[in-house]
Amino acid sequence: MQRLVSAAACAVLLCAAAYGEAGKPPRPLPGVFPARHGDAPYMLVAAESGLYKIAPRGTPMPLMTGGKVTHIVRTADAAGEHWLFATSAGLLSSRDLKSFELYGGQIPRHIVKEYAGGETRFVSEAQSLKGVAANPSNPLVVAAATRDAVFLSRDGGRRWANLGYSAKSAGTKAVAVADMPSGAATETVVFLSNAIAGLSYIRIDDANPRWQDLSDGFEKVPTMGYADEIADILPVLRTRADGTAYAEVYLSQSFLPCVYRLDWEAKRAEKIYRGQEPAGTIEGLCWTGSDLLYTAPGGLSRLDSATGKKRGVPAALRRRLDALKRVPGPIYAAYIPQKLSGFAESLLLKELWLLEPDAVHTAYAAAAFGKKSVYMPANHGASDEGISRYLDIVERNGLNSIVIDMKDDFGLLRFKPEDELLRQKGYVSQHAIRDDFIPRFKERSVYLIARIVVFKDRHLSQYGGGKYAVWDGGRRQPWVGIKSYGGEDEDAEYYDGNWVDPYCEEVWEYNVRVAQELIRKGFDEIQFDYIRFPTDGLNLGQAQYRWRGSGMSKESALISFLRYARRNIHAPLGIDVYGANGWYRSGTRTGQDVELLTEYVDVICPMFYPSHFEQSFLAHAPAKDRPYRIYYFGTYRTSVIARNTVVARPWVQAFYLPVSYDNAYYNADPKFYIAAQVFGVRDSVGRGYMYWNNAGRYDDISPDIAEDTPYPGEDRSVPTPFKASAVQSPVSAQGG
Fold first, then answer.
1. Is 567 exposed, middle or buried (0-12, 13-18, 19+ CB in 10 A)?
2. Lowest mean pLDDT, pick from 7-16, 166-175, 228-237, 672-681
């Protein structure tokens, strides 16, 4: 059995495949793969745990294990048909499913820093491919995309050219390539879906090809001026009377249940289907020969492309899907040959994790699921009165958990450490928790979450002469963000807080040692906050990261830290992220790319505070229901972006800020403002929530709501089809 291995080892194990001239016309792709791959028809399944082959009524047979496989593509070169697989080792090609050759050497890799046993090394790893697709009328031409670049191959995937990118911000969702009608001829076009920019395209054979945006006709989130994310792009072959082929393109959306046909001449989308649910996902578009199949929460659906009406899925295909579920999940894609599909075409299904929307595929899902928490300022845990008060808040409001700072925004430790490294580098606040803090909450079966502020750390930034600090090279001192430079006679105004270098492995070790000791003391879960880069400061361009390895990005810094943390923390692990990073598939400025980071954590905690979004955001009538909408759609979006590999547990705004919306609605009815957010979480993907009030004032929160309690507002959204109430064990417990 060939195993997925690191890129370096894979290069040694590669088996050479025949290669011909790129310009030679390929043989057309058959509906059933060539008989040399075995006389019996079989299915191929791509999953988190590897690549599998399944014969009818058979058990999964592993072909590659030890790494993730996300995409399956059937393509060809001058030597004939072959498979392409997007894997955690890179883009692999195979003709016989026994030997695999590494393709895509021109696609840039990213650099990850690994730290173990006091030793540091840098590893070059394949970037995650967000999409790979072959031109249906010319399988020599293949497009692939990373989070921030698009690549084109004209020889079946062996060699690639960089087409650049359509948007200023990263966030790829899908890519496709097709021969589109252009008068009596055709033109080859690459399509790209971006999380913020919508749909873009580039005519690759133009003298000066450039990306262009296309947004007309796509449904938009109310109050937003751009199309919501395009989930998938499917070119379908059509034939003119003279026998020449061209493509007709279908598209769907990630968070709205819509399907479109692209009017290429008018450069606009025509909606052919809209589901009834306010939030929904239509993924993995697939052509049966006459209809569209797509993956949606809970199963496959079938759509008549001419009328937009839903049709039944054959029972035989449903049985094939049941067989796929035998593969250790989550599963991402499957190839079903025509003999088994029940249709005139073989099927290439995608995003199959949606088949089990209730399953949370993470190591500690069962422990982290359904936690309803309140944030407790650390100094309140230093007194008997404070502990008693929060025990009462939890019990009175039907909660089951608290979050408390154990390393705060200034880097102060709120407990007395035993670890010598923490004694050496840390500083214990005079308001450390009492010795009986943990036992008293445990007696009431309260789940304890330790909040650890990671990269915003004034104390550690000053340690050792600033060796760990984000550095101001001009001033030759730890960097601090400047709010304003002031006038001639005024000093500059600074933001409150210093930062340590997210690339620094010694900073990682310090924070992980904090987490390890807290788990030993009895905390149930670790929550990392400020796990990001600084974003504020007129002098942001002066910030220097002296621990950064050559070729490392912001995203690879956070991946490196979380990978180290995951290997060394044997407990549920969560991270706080900006609300925008839970709403969009992008880690712009902060490095917080949720889709990338979920591989290493169990809980994502987006801060969907209504006060922090633009005040017009989702403020359409009835405007009072805006908090409900933000949490309803936001919680759903985070879960979809994370592909159900984490528990989405958002922070609820239980505080007032003097912004226009809060002035109008929070002041008028704070209990409704806060409760509406909780109802939004419940009606969306209700897996838990956390109240945040920096001062610990919770007079305006209400007891937890039951599943059958009607939302008291006017804009009553129905529960999403993604509604979850179960968890599933992972393939292998990371760190457990």
1. middle
2. 7-16
